[in-house]
Structure formats: C-alpha cells, structure tokens
Amino acid sequence: MSGRIHIDHFTTLDGVAQAPGGPDEDTDGGFAFGGWQAPLLDNTVGAQVDAGIQAMDALLLGRRTYDIFAAYWPHQLDGPVADIARKFNAIPKYVASRGMPELGWRDSHLLGGDLVEELTALRERHREIHVIGSIDFARTLVAYGLFDQLNLWVYPIVVGAGKRLFPDDGPPVALELIAAGAVSEKGAVLLRYGSTGSVPTTGDMTREDSAT
Fold first, then answer.
1. C-alpha span between 38 and 171 (Å, rounded)
2. What is the DSSP letter of 80?
3. Which of 37, 137, 187, 205 qualifies as a cystine partner to 20, CB 3.0-4.6 A?
4. CA distances from 152 to 38, 77, 191 (A)
5. Once rounded to an integer, what is the mean pLDDT over residues 111-126?
6. What are phi and psi of 75, to 5 degrees?
7. Residue 120, exposed/middle/buried by CB under 10 A (0-12, 13-18, 19+)?
8. What is the pLDDT of residues 159-200, one digit of tens each?
9. Start-to-end Cα distance in the chain
10. Transmembrane stretches, by residue range (predicted)?
11. What is the DSSP string of 44-110?
12. What does the CA dihedral 17, 22, 27, 32 come to, rounded to 10 degrees?
C-alpha cells in the first residue's frame, strides 16, 4: 500500500502563508502581520485541523518549520494543546534539508538524498504523511507534483506582501479540486486539491468552439 502525502496550508485571501501562528514566527522581509490567523480561529477549523493531525502517522517538514516546531511542541505536552503536542511527539518527523542540521526532537530523521527516492521510501513506510507550513519545501512538492492532496484553509483577510505557496514567478501548475468544505464561523474555507501533473491550458473565448 502506497502512503499519501498531504500539504496543509493556512493562507490569506491574497495567498500569504507566512507566520500565521505568532508575531515572531517569521519576520523575514519585515513581515508585519505575524499571527494573522490567531483572531480567526474557530471551532470548525479547529475540528478540521484536529482530524487531520489525528489521521497522520508522519510529519514531513522543511528545515525552518522543523526548528520552529521543535522549539515549541515538545514543551506543550501538558498545556491546552497537549493532544496535538503528544501526537507530534509520538510520530516520526522527517526534515528535508541540504545541510546537516541538528535534529534533537524525538524520532526526527534527515532527508538529504534524492527527493523522489526519499518520498517513495516514505510512502512505503507510512500511510498518511503531512507537510505543515514549510513554504519553500511545499513549493517544490507542488511544482513537481510530488504530493497527493493540498489542503488549503483560506481566510477572509488580505495582508499584502508576504511569503506565498504560489509566488509571482511560478511555476505554472494545474490542480484538481477534490472537495470544498463549509464556511467556518469566522469565514475560513477548506479547499482540497489534487495534483494533475500538468500545467494550465489556454483557449480563446472568441472562438465558437471554445466552450465544451
């Protein structure tokens, strides 16, 4: 049985995914809206996120997100987010990095070889692997179709400049909508996409045969 790779992303309406959790999470580029997600949390999104976390049996992270998680989650085992912390602590963590980072969090492993081969091995080892945050790494997975499902929680705010999963310089990617969730109490929508392995196609709306 081949496991599935999910990419979980919280994003503003204008596509910014940088630092949803707190002011000091990622201030690159002078980003001034760190923690933009916090005022918009609600029960619906909480239930969706919790269901995804409980279903996963491995975490796959970029180096920067791993460092943020490793500094936070091992210290939350008895707090209000203890269920999430215990799950993250219990499952294997895989870190995609070109360097040789120190991985002190329990059951953490470096992916430093050929990415396709590494992901193939993870699919054989695990049932449901989730990438959380890790914007740069997630861009690579999306660009090359190396994922099974992209879970986008889209929030009704616009913040302007910031890091995006889909940057202005591409690459172009065609996706397939798998499902659209209900609007949450504070206006977030969960959109689930699959990879088509193709680029967008174009047409000419002035041609009579353009509609099919």
1. 30
2. T
3. 37
4. 16, 27, 5
5. 93
6. -100, 10
7. middle
8. 999 999 999 888 899 999 999 988 999 999 999 999 988 888
9. 37
10. none
11. HHHHHHHHHHHH-SEEEEEHHHHHHHHHHGGG-TTSTTHHHHHHHHHS-EEEE-SS-----STTEEE
12. 80
- CA 124 centroid distance within chain: 21
Q: Which tokens hold the place of 90?
A: 């219990």
Q: What is the largest CA-CA distance in the chain?
A: 64
Write down the pLDDT at residue 56: 97
pLDDT value of position 153: 96
- Given 3.40.50.2020, 3.30.70.270, 3.30.200.20, 3.40.430.10, which CATH number is that of 4-198? 3.40.430.10
- What is the C-alpha separation between 162 and 33, in angstroms, rounded? 9
d(CA 27, CA 33): 9
Give CA separation, 75 vs 24, 37, 64, in Å: 17, 22, 18
